[in-house]
Specification:
Blueprint (H helix, E strand, L loop, with lengths): L1 H35 L9 H30 L1
Length: 76
């Protein structure tokens, strides 16, 4: 049981590291696209900040899922 928990912890840490790396790549992209559309990412407006955060998280999630699927297919 302890070995399974260690494996789980290792898996979770790998997944969190991957998600963080994706997030760091996605965030500048989202901010640049926002500027292109006239949205000020430096705005103090809570709605704007929340929207940009949600966009960043959604894109990171999508890429994370796509990466995971791609990795599974490449192993076959």
């Amino acid at each position: 049981m302890a070995a399974n928990l260690d494996q789980l912890e290792g898996f979770v840490r790998e997944q969190l590291e991957l998600h963080e790396r994706i997030f760091k790549l996605v965030r500048p992209y989202v901010l640049a696209r926002a500027r292109e559309f006239g949205i000020d990412p430096e705005s103090d407006d809570e709605h704007t900040r929340t929207t940009l955060y949600a966009m960043t998280m959604e894109l990171a999630r999508s890429i994370f899922v796509n990466w995971s699927v791609k990795q599974r297919y490449q192993k076959r």
